[in-house]
Amino acid sequence: MALPMAYQTGPAVPDWLNKGDNAWQMISATLVGLQSVPGLVILYGSIVKKKWAVNSAFMALYAFAAVWICWVTWAYNMSFGHHLLPFWGKAGPALGQNFLLNQAILPATEHDHKDGTLETGELELLYPMASMVYFQCVFAAITLILLAGSLLGRMNFKAWILFVPLWLTFSYTIGAFSLWGGGFLFQWGVMDYSGGYVIHLSSGIAGFTAAYWVGPRSTKDRERFVPNNLLLMLAGAGLLWLGWAGFNGGDPYAANIDSSLAVLNTNICAATSLLVWTCLDSIFFKKPSVIGAVQGMITGLVCITPGAGLVHGWSAIIMGMLSGSVPWFTMMVVHKRSRLLQKVDDTLGVFHTHAVAGFLGGVTTGIFAEPRLSGLFVAVTNSRGLIYGSLVQVLKQVVGAMFVIGWNVVMTTLICVAIRYVMPLRMSEEQLAIGDDAVHGEEAYALWGDGEKYDSTKHGVHDDETLHNKVATGVTQNV
């Protein structure tokens, strides 16, 4: 049955709107959001010791909520608005309907001159600005959540409350504007298809830096930090993997052939990396590790992100082989021999899984980027990788990475030092010893006997002597 004419041509359906592209962009944004909530919330809450399950999950949940308010109030326009500085946009709200319901516009580079110099252009997308604000917000949120992985099990939650908006404002927006929003790295031709630098390199470096300033976990926790639920950890990891279809598939800003290629390459690289990491664990440690497999999966997803729609499938396999081996080597070999890496307590190894893998992905994108595929992506024109004759692109990728690394080290340090003047960055010793119950007054699992005194009014009618006899004989199932 055909819709009435008013619904086909009304103000909610302007001529420029492509419903398919708009639907895919909102689906992609939702997939990325699901990577964070519940994906990383579940993964973080499961991969840590039981006593830190609530705190770790809550750090992720808080960051997701806080970024939303900051994003629409000032941070979106700092990342994608009008130029303020070569690396920063002008702050401003993204809340008015006159702004959100208009056609989305993004900066683009165009070869307008015969000498090949670049001139800034604008690209009109086929959906409203509201979809763009939504899509970019979930990327900002997951960056803070990934960063949190370096700080689990000891950061003062009140300090985390301050850290999130400060780091979003003074660090994330810089990388986003410089590489995506029309800033100087964007104009120079540094390629970051979907956040290998903006998200992963920055979160890995910032997480490592913040971990230095916050300080390590308790000695007891560093010596033994057993995951409380590996099966739930796999559920969170699965949401992370499948959600990456939106992470990379949404960045052509349209439901086009480049989007399809990006999704396929993402899965190829992740699968290859997981298998390589598992093989290395099996060869050198004699046992395949499920945690290692998840780490390999993540490094593969991270590595392909800077070039997901810019490289061929065979390149994705090579990138997967590198992402399954290089971060494995830095984590399992270099880390154990480096005094600096040993000194800094990076809880989940975010430096290796995101900073190392993100840098690796950016450089290999500079090697494997194919000019025809680059031409399909709105943010670049015909950039070519090393194997297609351009050493310059590799150098650009390295310089871009150095800027992201340097900025995050300096700014994260300044933010941590500033917060430290207001409140402690690290929990008290009592909180570190007890965990969730001391910090939040809540525990992940209500299991009797885990630090709880026996109370006959709660746990049964047996007197203490009866209980002692049952414990001694191993008959405690019904107590």
From TrEMBL:
Sorted alphabetically, the Gene Ontology BP terms of this entry are: ammonium transmembrane transport
Q: Which UniProt keywords apply?
A: Ammonia transport, Membrane, Transmembrane, Transmembrane helix, Transport
PROSITE patterns, sorted: AMMONIUM_TRANSP (PS01219), NA_SOLUT_SYMP_2 (PS00457)
Which Pfam families does the entry mention?
Answer: Ammonium_transp
List each coiled-coil range: none
Q: Cellular component per GO?
A: plasma membrane
Q: Where are the transmembrane segments?
A: 23-45, 57-76, 133-152, 159-181, 193-214, 226-247, 259-278, 290-308, 314-335, 347-369, 398-422
Name the Gene Ontology molecular function terms of this record.
Answer: ammonium channel activity
Q: Does the keyword Transmembrane apply?
A: yes
What region holds the Ammonium transporter AmtB-like domain? 23-445
- Places the protein is found: Cell membrane; Membrane
Principal localisation:
membrane
Membrane topology note = Multi-pass membrane protein
Q: Enumerate the PANTHER family for this protein.
A: AMMONIUM TRANSPORTER MEP2 (PTHR43029)
Q: So what does this one do?
A: Involved in ammonium transport.
Q: Which NCBIfam families match?
A: amt (TIGR00836)
Family, similarity comment: Belongs to the ammonia transporter channel (TC 1.A.11.2) family.
The protein's name is Ammonium transporter
